[in-house]
Write a structure and sequence with these properties.
The chain has an 8-stranded parallel sheet. The longest helix has 19 residues, at about 180-200. It is an alpha/beta fold and about 250 residues long. It has a single domain (about 5-245), classed as Aldolase class I (TIM Barrel), CATH 3.20.20. The protein is globular and about 45 Å long. Helix 2 (about 45-55) links the parallel strand 2 (about 35-40) and strand 3. The chain is built from 12 helices and 8 strands. The protein binds phosphoenolpyruvate. Phosphoenolpyruvate binds near residues 172, 214, 232 and 235.
Length: about 250
């Protein structure tokens, strides 16, 4: 089955509003005839600015996280209602920095996934093993467990709004990329897990992005693999010089 490639840029905690606006304007111009699906996820502080620039273009607006509760006394958190108000369309959840630096567990991530879907957002659910887990031969088990936990209680209908991003923790921001073969093996495994739970048709439709030091010079080899359907890009998403060639790979 041919799936549309989905190329997403996670800007993490970078860029003032003016810097974010500059990059967003360049991307909108340079990607306007691009044939893949595109997303940028700026910091919360730049969502309104970037949202105004990408509105009605082929670049979606994403948030890097969301609170697990709808509203209330949650100092420092940002809610689904507030993201909706800003025109956010997609929420990235379970990023390895949220899991490992901020100790988000699967139960919390699952709560966020269900809340975001309930409010009509698309979700990018990130999964991936650490280096220790890979070396212990646990990469598949870890990704299976994070996928199943993250999607627990998610219906087959809502699964259509979910993208899985396989991001081996050891490859994020390190310059180390999983080989296309190693990445493909995990992507195929995740698709098998989804087929077991949701059926073959849903599994075949699921977009599975790869993330971890994706660059202009390695994107094509990764995307050539049957089960790799896009990229979640960190460092190389911060400049149009590197993000545009990734987004326009062919
Ligand atoms: C990420 O943070 O999701 C990521 C993949 O980062 P990088 O591309 O910098 O490895």
């Amino acid at each position: 089955m041919s799936r549309q490639y989905f190329i997403a840029g996670n800007w993490k905690m970078h860029k003032t509003r003016a810097e974010a606006a500059d990059l967003a304007k360049t991307l909108v111009l340079q990607l306007k005839d691009g044939k893949h699906k595109y997303l940028v996820a700026p910091s919360f502080t730049s969502l309104e600015t970037v949202g105004a620039i990408v509105k009605d273009t082929n670049v979606l607006l994403g948030a890097q996280d969301v609170a697990a509760e709808e509203q209330g006394a949650h100092t420092g958190e940002v809610s689904v209602l507030q993201l909706k108000d800003l025109g956010v369309q997609v929420v990235i959840l379970g990023h390895s920095e949220r899991r490992h630096t901020y100790k988000e567990d699967d139960a919390l991530i699952n709560k966020k996934v269900k809340l975001a879907l309930k409010h009509g957002f698309e979700v990018i659910l990130c999964v991936g093993e650490t280096l220790e887990e890979r070396e212990a031969g646990q990469a598949e088990v870890v990704c299976e467990s994070q996928t199943l936990w993250g999607l627990s209680g998610v219906s087959a209908i809502d699964l259509a709004k979910v993208t899985i991003a396989y991001e081996p923790v050891w490859a994020i921001g390190t310059g180390k990329t999983a080989s296309p073969e190693d990445a493909e093996a995990i992507h195929a495994y995740i698709r098998k897990v989804i087929a077991r739970v949701y059926g073959e048709e849903s599994a075949q439709k699921l977009i599975i992005q790869y993330g971890g030091s994706v660059k202009p010079d390695n994107v094509a080899q990764l995307m050539a693999k049957e089960n790799i359907d896009g990229a979640l890009v960190g460092g190389a998403a911060l400049k149009s010089d590197t993000f545009v060639p990734i987004a326009q790979f062919s």
